Amino acid sequence: MTARTRARLAVAAFAVATAIGVAAQEDPARTAPSPDAARAAWQFRRAVTMPPADAAGRVVAIAIPPDVAEHSQRALQDLRLVAADGREVPYVLDVDVPRDTERRRLGRLVEAQQERRDLSAWAIDFGVVAPFDRLELDVDGSGFAKRAMLEISDDGIRWSRVDGEAWIFDRPWRGRQIHDTVIDRATPLVARFVRITLDDVRSRPVIVRGATAVLTGTLGGARWSRDAALTRLETPAGAPSRYTVDAPATLPVERLTIATADGAYWREVRVFEDVPGRGLQPVSAPSPIYRLGVGDADLDAEHRDIDLQRPAAGRLVVEIENGDSPPLASPRVTLSGMTRRVLVPPVVSGLTLYYGNPVTRRPVYDLEALRLRLAFVADFPAATLGPEAANPRFAPVPPMAFLAARGAAADITHWPYARALTIEGGDDIYTVALAATDLGHLRPDLADLRLVDAEGRQVPYVIEPQAEAARVALRIGGATPRAHTPKTSAFELTVPGVRDVAEAPPLAALRLTFAEAFFTRPAVVTVNDARAVQGRTVVAQETLRALRREAGAAPEPITIDLGGGRADRLVIEISDGDNAPLTPKTADAVVLVPRVTFKATKGSYRLLFGKADAEAPTYDLAALRQDVLAYSALPLADAALRPLAPNDAYARDAGDVARSLSNGPVLWAVLGLSILVLLWLTWRILKQPAAAPPPPPPPATGVQ
Questions:
Q1: Is the per-residue pLDDT at 689 higher than 90?
Q2: Spacing of C-alpha 234 from chain mean position
Q3: Which CATH class, in words, describes the domain spanning 101-219?
Q4: Dihedral, CA atoms, 448, 449, 453, 459, nearest 10 degrees?
Q5: pLDDT band at residue 698 using 50, 70 and 90 as cut-offs
Q6: Where are the domains of the chain?
Q7: Are 629 and 462 contacting, i.e. CB atoms less than 8 angstroms apart?
Q8: CB under 8 Å to 36, separation ≥6 — which residues?
Q9: Poorest-pLDDT segment among 119-128, 135-144, 542-551, 670-679
Q10: What pTM value is reported for the model?
Q11: Architecture of domain 223-338
Q12: How far is 256 from 241, CA to CA, in rounded Å?
């Protein structure tokens, strides 16, 4: 074979190889794994059907049914949405809680009629014609049960009778007084005047002092429910009855509704979780269930709901206190909870929901920062899930023994801050969330974070920048509103332990509670800004609302989105109108903190912070990011991590000194001292006496 022939064959082989490479690049399906293979650690999948085309461009909600939760982790952190091309689609996990609205209008009593031992009539004027679906009557009296007939009018002259009847009552039952003087309507009424006629034949007359018309509404809110059987457990004679609930332990139950064949009863009920190795742990407070039967179906009243105080981690057990009464007849339960859903940005089609990975971690998407804004949307177009199917490529995640636990040595003398870390367990994958105060000593890109062992060797890690929400309690103080705006109160909220904005953490949201129970006030949040006209700039605007009517009810926090800017102090200005100023009780800042996941063994470690010129670390572990996050890493207890402190091995170099001088008052002190020294030297030079002139030269001598 000649040299020319060999050269031609080499050129041809190169051309073929190039063509194959180009073809592989042009056809990713030939090289990219299928979505099922790429999610082999997920056992189940369901196809997602998107809503009609008229919802295009809007965020879509996908309701997660309870049978998906049965095969998922308790917090649904293993859900993944995958597009047809294999891309993972970000989402926000949301609970579709109802947001109730009420418009209340207090009525004025304008007429009262009584016919002895027959009936009483009361006319109420609400001032304007308005819709309402609830009447709350202010009734004096006790021990009554009365049939109420309603009539409505727009002018107080021509009256129309409302179809149907209602009942109000006040009756003792097993040592308790059951009082109900609220009339609810399934269909709203529209009127200015209401006349309530009460039947006085069955009980003595009462006095109606007034009434409030309420128009209720709900934004969002959906519940799932499922019937479940109860299995009786053996208990000693005279002890409460106990039943196990026939439902998976992973079902996200929030409420149990108990039904029985008994016509009238009153029982105290508690719900427990049966945790292996720990026994029965309470998940609800003692709560009454009752049915009041008086021989008239219209008078029956009942309460059968038991709300759980926290999610259960084991099989549910219901305990019913019988006292001297026989056990309830054939009790059964309905389990329910608020519907959880994923909110997805606009996509075309071809989505698949994967779930059933018992060891994966919660994904971290940038959409999480929009959670607070999405909560105020009334509704979303709804997608639907297809039937459950097994992932044909499912394979459990194997142990990650191949991961290297140590990297190159780091010169720890260049990091000014450190947090000591102790691991007591064996060789495993661990995770730790940073504190909010740590972010004040880290660069925004987190590139200066290092984890080292006792010998100063780096421990490779994977970081999730905004994995968890930490709360920082703010100090509340007085403040003055900008331009001394009248009818406006102001409060200063200070981040503790922070000297300036440079050390402040990024604030994602503000959570406030107030002592007052009922208010609606516009408010703005401002921060220091030397460039602003009044030295402050607005970073958030919100309407503060509280609608509590129950005496002693705990205040609910009001959340204000701050957008993640750094600030060491905030000022909130509240427009009070002619109301008394609000009284703030608590103020918390929400900070989205990073979570670090790494492989380590028993020993002592340090997290290093604050090297301003550090380059981002490059670990081989980055190529295994998804594998690492697919593990259920062991979270380190708070006691394992020491507080942030100066690094005792830190040695300042010339660059550190220059940076500290340029960023603090030391620079101005040095400049001022230098100026004083120069002025003093100039003064010394000017004060020196003038030099004496040189003596004249001697006369010349010599022979003429």
A1: no
A2: 42
A3: mainly beta
A4: -100
A5: low
A6: 1-31, 32-98+340-390, 101-219, 223-338
A7: yes
A8: 45, 391, 392, 393
A9: 670-679
A10: 0.45
A11: Sandwich (2.60)
A12: 16
